[in-house]
Specification:
Length: 313
């Protein structure tokens, strides 16, 4: 039986908020939606996930009730790129450590800028520097000079072309995106996937204006891939796991480093330290299943840290 899907109007009624607020949540990536034609829909499971994340934290226990795990009431804000492993980590860590973790999937660049501005605690990023061809660290070195920063590897992901089952249009490389019979769906500006795509197009001398649909944007991998599943577009550039989720074919193009950037403050250092230890634990590693398109060989490895964080982790 198909799962019920709600309109933005219905979601607004359920949460007693305005329809405009629902669209803003979708735009920021806090509420995931998909399109049928030009109509937006939100699945029931996504509403339940959103409600769970928005629950008020439990009251701080008394001294007699205090457990060894973190008992802070301050929510941990995670912003940046959308990824299925990030979703899984946030959910599992929240349960294991009794923390409130609020993810906001707004793209790698905006997530890193929110971390820089002190508006979140963790940024999930996969940003390719077109000059050095190195992931993530060139941006971090430029932005964070005096802050207490620690970068942990989550996974290496496969990026490539997501196409219909059977790939009847034989879309195999970037030159195929310029064909008149090929319709493309893009990711939003500021996403790590958009960074990688634009870098590849530039290296091949392909002008975006030659690609049908280059200006049509979606805010996460699953939403973009759903255009292919519904036959609205022929190809998008995204991760292998999104293709697998929807039973689509995948043409690999590149492997990228996906990292979590932690910014320590006096208020969050206990919670962030516990989160990093959990990320590195066998308990979390053993919870990972369905890893098609991911390599977790370096999961939990500290890639970079400032001197201020050496005594914490």
């Amino acid at each position: 039986m198909d799962e019920k899907a709600y309109t933005p109007d219905e979601v607004a009624q359920i949460f007693q908020i305005s329809k405009h607020t629902v669209y803003e949540l979708i735009k920021r990536g806090e509420l995931q939606a998909f399109k049928i034609g030009n109509k937006m829909r939100i699945e029931h499971a996504e509403l339940e996930r959103f409600k769970e994340n928005m629950k008020a934290p439990a009251k701080k226990p008394s001294v007699e009730q205090t457990s060894p795990v973190s008992n802070t009431n301050m929510p941990i804000l995670l912003s940046g790129s959308h990824d299925f492993l990030v979703e899984h980590f946030a959910k599992q860590a929240a349960q294991a450590l009794h923390l409130q973790i609020q993810p906001s999937f707004i793209g790698s660049l905006e997530g890193l800028m929110m971390l820089y501005r002190g508006q979140c605690d963790i940024a999930a990023i996969h940003l390719l520097d077109p000059t050095s061809h190195e992931y993530n660290l060139p941006f971090i070195h430029q932005l964070f000079v005096y802050e207490s920063i620690l970068v942990v590897r989550l996974a290496v992901r496969e990026q490539g072309f997501i196409v219909a089952k059977g790939n009847s249009k034989s879309i195999l490389d970037f030159s195929d995106l310029t064909r008149k019979d090929v319709q493309f769906i893009n990711r939003q500006k500021g996403s790590g996937t958009r960074f990688l795509l634009d870098s590849k197009l530039s290296s091949y001398g392909i002008a975006p204006s030659k690609i049908n649909g280059y200006g049509n944007e979606e805010w996460n991998h699953l939403s973009a891939a759903s255009y292919i599943a519904r036959g609205i577009a022929d190809v998008t550039f995204g991760i292998h796991s999104a293709a697998s989720h929807l039973g689509l074919d995948f043409v690999p193009v590149a492997k990228e480093q996906f990292d979590l950037v932690f910014r320590f403050t006096d208020e969050n250092k206990q919670s962030l330290t516990e989160l990093i230890h959990y990320l590195q634990s066998d308990l979390f590693k053993n919870s990972l299943i369905d890893l098609e398109g991911y390599s977790i060989q370096d999961l939990g490895k500290i890639i970079y840290q400032t001197s201020q964080t050496e005594e914490l982790v």
